[in-house]
């Protein structure tokens, strides 16, 4: 899954970063390719407190509308942790190649990624919707 192309900058919340880092450790032996790709994404990510993140950023739990630039197909999915996916059509696990490619991108950004079969694809983020972040007063 390692990509030779330049990837766009990404930002993660400190909470997502920590949880994804723990997830990587848990799957290193069972899913080494996904673990390696997610680890690369974490290594290159800017990390910020959740309340400082832009609204149109793909975070865990966000509803994301994206286009497969190779086929033109538009998909609407919620990016979730594997225990929340449960085979639901509208949910996309972070442990899938496309799920890992989505994390940390903003509306309008595109990224090249590889399918499990090694085919190179490109996707573009069309819309991101997520619950507003509330800070304690």
How does this model look, in words?
The protein has 137 residues and is α/β, with parallel strands linked by helices. The protein has a single domain (11-129), classed as Transcription elongation factor, GreA/GreB, C-terminal domain (Chitinase A, domain 3, Roll). 27% of the residues lie in helices and 27% in strands. The chain has helices at 14-27, 32-44, 82-85, 97-102, and strands at 11-13, 46-48, 63-68, 74-80, 91-93, 110-114, 120-129. The strands form two sheets. Strands 5-4-3-7-6 form a five-stranded mixed β-sheet. Strand 4, helix 3 (82-85) and strand 5 (91-93) form a beta-alpha-beta unit. Helix 1 (14-27) packs antiparallel against helix 2 (32-44). The longest helix is centred in the first third of the chain and has 14 residues, at 14-27. It is globular. Mean pLDDT is 88; it is low at 133-137. Keywords: Kinase, Transferase. One of its GO terms (molecular function) is kinase activity.
Order of helices and strands: EHHEEEHEHEE
Helical content stands at: 25-40%
Large-scale geometry: globular
Largest sheet: 5 strands, mixed
Question: How widely separated are the two ends?
Answer: 43 Å
From the alpha carbons, calculate the radius of gyration and give it in angstroms.
14 Å
Our count of domains comes out at 1
Broad structural category? alpha/beta
Q: Quote the CATH topology.
A: Chitinase A, domain 3
What percentage of amino acids are in beta strands? 25-35%
Strand order of the largest sheet: 5-4-3-7-6
Number of helices: 4
Spans of at least 5 consecutive residues whose pLDDT stays below 50 are 133-137
Mean pLDDT: 88
């Amino acid at each position: 899954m390692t990509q030779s192309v330049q990837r766009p900058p990404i930002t993660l919340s400190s909470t997502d970063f920590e949880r994804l880092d723990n997830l990587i450790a848990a799957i290193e032996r069972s899913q080494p390719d996904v673990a390696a790709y997610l680890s690369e994404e974490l290594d290159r990510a800017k990390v910020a407190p959740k309340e400082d993140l832009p609204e149109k950023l793909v975070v865990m739990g966000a509803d994301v509308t994206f286009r497969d630039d190779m086929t033109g197909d538009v998909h609407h999915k919620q990016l979730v942790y594997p225990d929340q996916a449960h085979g639901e059509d509208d949910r996309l696990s972070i442990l899938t190649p496309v799920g890992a490619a989505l994390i940390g991108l903003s509306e309008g950004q595109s990224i090249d990624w590889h399918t499990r079969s090694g085919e190179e694809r490109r996707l573009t983020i069309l819309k991101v919707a997520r619950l507003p972040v509330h800070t304690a007063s």
